[in-house]
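Input/output pair, single chain:
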Amino acid sequence: MSFLAVLAAGLSSYIFGAIWYMSLSRPWLTAAGIEAQEDGKPPNGGPVPYIVAFLGAVLVAGMMRHIFSLSGILEMGIGAGLTAGLGLGLFLVAPWIATNYAFAGRNLTLTLIDAGYAIIGCSIMGVVLTLI
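Output:
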């Protein structure tokens, strides 16, 4: 059952990411300095970024489940899962993204879009992991 929970949590965050980035595609492209093609899509239309994103989401969900299991969060319910996921996204992942982008000279908009996805995505994973 834990493998199914990890897959469900990873997939849930991945689906949220698709919605997040589709709705913020123009500001993200501008902030990332990527020129869109005439159809509005970025030039790297291949499957590799999507595969990497899905595998990354599953890996994060797997580690989150491990942390949740060791700390007893899985037994505490949805509220604890949401809080722990939010905390991991807000206090571990987002600062790491901000640090990388600051050293790379990226702009604040890109940092906020990408860190926002990490924060909400981890929160979703936390909820899903405590549901299954």
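The mean pLDDT is 95. The CA atoms of residues 37 and 117 lie 24 Å apart.
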